[in-house]
Amino acid sequence: MYETQKKAVIETALKIREYGLIALAGGNVSMRLPDGDILVTPSGTYYETMRESDVLLMDSEGNIKEGDLKPSVDTIALLYIYKNMPEVNAIIHTHQTNATAVGLISDKLPAVTTTLSNVTLGEVNVAPYSSPASLNMGIETVKHINGKRAIILKHHGVVTVGGNLKEAMYAAIYMEESAKAYLLAKACKEPDVLTAEQSDNAAEIFKDVGQSK
Ligand SMILES: [Zn+2]
Question: CATH assignment of 3-206?
């Protein structure tokens, strides 16, 4: 079942891999289906050889309905996020270097570029440390994401969310670009940031960018 959606999950994973946001079998991609079931990438499996049948179908409690592999070890956190953020239908987790680095020196990635605000809807918080593969990873995400589409997990990586896979993917890729710009600037002096109005405006404008299909 859901071959098209499983394919979209793998294509999203390959896209973020193409941009260097995930290495080997790190991170995960998942989405919520209209009936409430969840598709999750498997644990410890390389994305470039992943097949549709490797993507797991589970109910909202994590009971596996399709798939023989073990799901991502972060599944307990992902299910918590889906349960507590009804507007979220896709989650991407990566260990992307630049955004993760920001989490080691700051409690947020400020809105330093319009691109960041376009995709994350503004500054991105850094959640306190939680163990990977723990329920706490989900709890800290929900607690600190503050209506944005991304959060940095201290000493770990990044979680991005969206109403669909594309929104979560854009948040991850463009946040990495903006995090890099922030770190480069910060090496010279404390970077200037957008005003709240400029940031909100950038988020608003981006809603009309691209082709509606
Ligand atoms: Zn991780």
Answer: 3.40.225.10
Strand bridging mode 124-127 / 108-109:
antiparallel
Q: Which amino acid is at 41?
A: T
Domain boundaries, the chain: 3-206
pLDDT digits (tens, 9 = 90+) for 83-108: 999 999 999 999 999 999 999 999 99
Centre of ligand 1 to C-alpha 155, Å, is 10
Nearest to 80 by CA among 147, 150, 138, 141: 138
Q: Say how many Å lie between the CA of residue 210 and the centre of ligand 1.
A: 31
Please give the distance, rounded to the nearest whole angstrom, from the Cα atom of residue 101 to the centre of ligand 1.
Answer: 14
Distance, CA 48 to ligand 1 centroid (Å)?
A: 18
In eight-state DSSP terms, residue 42 is: B
Tell me, in angstroms, the distance from the centre of ligand 1 to residue 156's CA: 6
Task: Give me ligand 1 centre to Cα 59, in Å.
Answer: 22
5: part of which helix (H) or strand (E)? helix 3-18
